[in-house]
Write a structure and sequence with these properties.
It is a single chain. The protein has about 550 residues and is of the alpha/beta class. The protein has helices spanning about 5, 40-45, 45-55, 90-100, 120-125, 195-210, 255-265, 285, 300-305, 310-325, 345, 370-385, 415-420, 465, 475-485; strands at about 20-25, 55-60, 65, 75-80, 105-110, 140, 165, 175-180, 215, 275, 300, 335, 390-395, 495, 505-510, 515-520, 525, 530-535, 545, 550-554. It folds into three domains: about 15-110 and about 195-480, Glycosidases (TIM Barrel); about 120-180, Oligo-1,6-glucosidase, domain 2 (Alpha-Beta Complex), CATH 3.90.400; about 495-554, Sandwich (Immunoglobulin-like). The chain is built from 15 helices and 20 strands. An eight-stranded parallel sheet has the order 11-10-9-5-2-1-13-12. A five-stranded antiparallel sheet has the order 14-15-16-20-18. It has a three-stranded antiparallel sheet with strand order 6-8-7, with no helix packed on it. About 50% of the residues are buried. The structure holds beta-D-glucopyranose (BGC). Beta-D-glucopyranose binds near residues 70, 110, 217, 339 and 340.
Length: about 550
């Protein structure tokens, strides 16, 4: 045991232990300005809808100043709002609107890399090799006689090499800089104290404004192995490091002292502010290292997200998660969709492998069946939201939105698409602006009809307005689940497996609720006289059909 796991584990009652946190992808949520890209005033205008849904908090993907080469994950000023999304005043108004309705607000922090337009990177380009300016990033000399071979063989997560060569100020070919993502996203050197100090300032800037926490981007990548050794990833593995154990740029021990430092800083503020790690690691055991008592508070449970719709696999990942996070006194989190993965209303019905980040398009193998996908998505969410701990939802899943498969090549925007010459579709399919009204411009996303990614015609019937008063709609299901979850205090409960429903069932008791999910095809008999609290789909003569989950009173 090392020092940090020795700290007494005494789970408390902080809000983030049980919260349902709804991810807003600002460019696709609601567009008040009408330019086709969502914005902060748009979010403010929809705050009542969020309160009505029954979530506890929102997490906003980046809205800070950015050239938008990676949809805002390329930040050029960490302490300002990009004009596309509004102003700092708009941010304050949004925050006040959320807090006024009891909704907490988490913002995205992108510390692994900045935009190449960040002042520091521009200064680094103008400075000489070996300078203080270059030392804030990962500049290295190239190999080979003329230095024209990259310093090592690493590939970018988005495809292509992870190094780009610069031209020095005298016009000669110069050093190379590391970018684990796009060439417009140079990696900071986190062994440099100046970088650490700058991010303390950034954290304080947003904490002083009143945010309730941060979702920390690429929280497993900020420290690279000494000497930057060559490494070739397994082509079958997810591009963020999903399956692999020993990657010289993921999960290095040195990242943990950064989070211990941030933990102390965040703890100076009142209100249980929280840090949530985006760390793609192979197992819950590994990920739990990010949430030891003196580090971050939550980590996304990507092992859960990556689990197929299969009862045995689901039981195993739930067990592993509760054990691994429980051992360090952290809540398990649960998540099925976000802005980087194929939406679960499609993913759970894919019939071919689809590594994380690759996306699906018209030519992808194993195309999902929409009806099966939606049934599984509703069942999977009904299961997830009954688990103890905290859950993350991604905007649009409450409408049952599928992945948009048919986006014309010329409309695609994800750097993955460009950097792989169209070999990987990337993530645009889960980022299409969401439909609010069945008719009207851009389905109520704005009033002008502009949309930065094209919205499919089928989305009229999935619009919020079309689902609002339909008791069988996915929106009504989410609302009912979120209310019942609160009423039965499931987030703070404990899970006890229940036997007797067969191999295809995931069945457990959490407090006074028994949950049964059927991942198979044969109906499962429910106990005689069961009182059904929630059902993800219609029951058949009192039995639970395949791809359906039910909550019954224990
Ligand atoms: C974000 C992605 C982003 C990448 C680089 C992530 O994991 O979620 O959307 O492209 O980091 O910042």
């Amino acid at each position: 045991m090392n020092a940090s796991t020795d700290v007494a584990v005494t789970p408390g009652s902080e809000w983030w232990r049980t919260a349902v946190i709804y991810q807003i992808y600002p460019r696709s949520f609601a567009d008040a300005s009408g330019d086709g890209i969502g914005d902060l005033p748009g979010i403010t205008s929809r705050m009542d809808d969020l309160a009505d849904l029954g979530i506890d908090a929102i997490w906003l993907s980046p809205f800070q100043k950015s050239p938008q080469k990676d949809a805002g994950y390329d930040v050029s000023d960490y302490c300002d709002v990009d004009p596309l999304f509004g102003t700092l005043d708009d941010f304050d108004a949004m925050l006040a609107a959320a807090h006024g309705r009891g909704i907490r607000v988490i913002v995205d922090l992108v510390p692994n890399h900045s935009s190449d337009q960040h002042e520091w990177f521009q200064q680094a380009l103008a400075a000489a090799p070996g300078s203080r300016e270059r030392a804030r990033y990962m500049f290295r000399d190239g190999k080979g006689e003329n230095g024209d071979v990259p310093p090592n063989n690493w590939d970018s997560v988005f495809g292509g090499p992870a190094w780009t060569r610069v031209t020095e100020t005298d016009g000669t070919p110069g050093q190379w800089y590391l970018h684990l993502f796009d060439s417009s996203q140079p990696d900071f050197d986190w062994t440099n104290e100046e970088v650490r100090e700058e991010f303390r300032r950034v954290l304080r800037f947003w904490l002083d404004r009143g945010v309730d926490g941060f979702r920390v981007d690429v929280a497993h990548g900020m420290i690279k192995a000494d000497g930057l050794p060559d490494y070739s990833p397994d082509p079958e593995a997810g591009s963020m490091g999903g399956e692999e154990a020993d990657v010289p740029y993921w999960g290095q021990e040195g990242v943990h002292e950064i989070y211990r430092d941030w933990h102390t800083l965040v703890a100076e503020y009142d209100g249980d502010r929280a840090l949530c790690a985006e760390a793609w690691l192979p197992t819950p055991e590994k990920t739990a290292l990010w949430v030891r008592p003196d580090e971050m508070h939550q980590a996304f449970n990507f092992a859960y997200l990556e689990t197929k719709w299969d009862a045995a696999a689901l039981r195993a990942v739930v067990d592993d998660s509760l054990a691994a996070y429980g051992a360090v006194g952290a809540p398990s989190t649960w998540v099925l969709s976000n802005h980087d993965v194929v939406r679960h209303a499609s993913r759970l019905a894919l019939t071919a492998e689809n590594p994380q980040g690759h996306g699906i398009g018209p030519d992808s193998p194993g195309q999902p069946d929409a009806v099966v996908g939606l049934a599984r998505a509703r069942a999977a969410t009904t299961l997830m939201l009954a688990l103890p701990g905290s859950s993350y939802l991604y905007q649009g899943e409450e409408l049952g939105l599928p992945e948009v498969v048919h986006i014309p090549g010329e409309a695609r925007q994800d750097p993955t698409w460009f950097r792989t010459n169209g070999e990987r579709y990337g993530r645009d399919g889960c980022r299409v602006p969401i439909p609010w009204t069945a008719d009207g411009a851009a389905y109520g996303f704005n009033t002008t009809g502009e949309s930065w990614l094209p919205q499919p015609a089928e989305w009229a019937q999935l619009a919020r307005s079309a689902q609002q008063d339909d008791p069988t709609s996915t929106l009504s299901l989410y609302r009912a689940i979120l209310a019942a979850r609160k009423q039965h205090a499931l987030g703070a409960g404990t899970l006890e497996w229940v036997e007797g429903f067969g191999e295809d069932a995931v069945a457990f008791r959490n407090g006074d609720v028994t949950v049964v999910a059927n991942t198979g095809t044969q109906p499962i008999a429910l106990p005689e006289g069961s009182t059904v609290l929630i059902a993800s789909g219609p029951l058949e003569d009192g039995a639970l059909p395949g791809d359906t989950t039910v909550w019954i009173a224990s």
